[in-house]
Amino acid sequence: MRKVLTYGFAFIVICTLGTGCVRILRSMPFSVARLKKEVMGILLFAIFYILIIPICVVLHEVGHGLGVVLSSGARASIYIGKFNEKENKKNFHIGRLDFHIQWSYFGCCYSAGDLKKYQELAFFIGGPLMSLILSLISFWLWSITSDGVFHSLFQGITMFSITQFLITAIPFKYPNWMGSYSGFSSDGLQLLKILRSK
C-alpha cells in the first residue's frame, strides 16, 4: 500500500513540475483537483471498510456487554471474529468486559451464568440501542459538517449504523447469505422470545 501511495505521489509531483505535463493534464477531461477528490474518495472508502465498519461492530457488541454488566454482576465476553476462546484469545479487558478481537465484520457477545429476565432484556436491548445512539450522533455530526471528508465519513457511519440497528432490531432469523450470522436469531427475535417466556 505504501509503495502504491509513494508511486502515486511521485507521479503527481513529476507531472506538476514539468510544464509540458501540466499542459497535457489541462487538456485532459480531468483536473488535478478532480484527481485529488477521486483519490480522497478511494482512501475514504478504504478507511470505511478497513476501520469504521469493524469499530461499529465492536461498539454494537459493547452495547450488549454493557447491558449485562450494568444490570448484573456478571462478566461479558465480546468476540470480534471467531466466536470461541481457542481461536480468538482474550486481548484485553475493561472492567468486566473481556475483549477477544480479530479484524472482522462480525461479532458476538455472551455472558456466562444464569441471567434473570430483566438482565437478558438489558443484554439484547444493549446492542441495537448502542447502534441507534451511534447513528444519531453520527447523523448530528454529518449535519453540522460542511462538504468534505468528514461530511462523507459521518454520512457513511450514519447509514451503516442505522442499517445495523434495523437488521438487529427487526425480529427474524438471519438468512444464509449473512455468512457467520446465518441461522442465528436477531436481537429483536431474542427479545420477543424472552418477552413471551414466563
UniProtKB/TrEMBL annotation:
<feature type="transmembrane region" description="Helical">
    <location>
        <begin position="6"/>
        <end position="26"/>
    </location>
</feature>
<keyword id="KW-0472">Membrane</keyword>
<keyword id="KW-0812">Transmembrane</keyword>
<feature type="transmembrane region" description="Helical">
    <location>
        <begin position="153"/>
        <end position="172"/>
    </location>
</feature>
<keyword id="KW-1133">Transmembrane helix</keyword>
<protein>
    <recommendedName>
        <fullName>Peptidase M50 domain-containing protein</fullName>
    </recommendedName>
</protein>
<feature type="transmembrane region" description="Helical">
    <location>
        <begin position="121"/>
        <end position="141"/>
    </location>
</feature>
<feature type="transmembrane region" description="Helical">
    <location>
        <begin position="38"/>
        <end position="60"/>
    </location>
</feature>
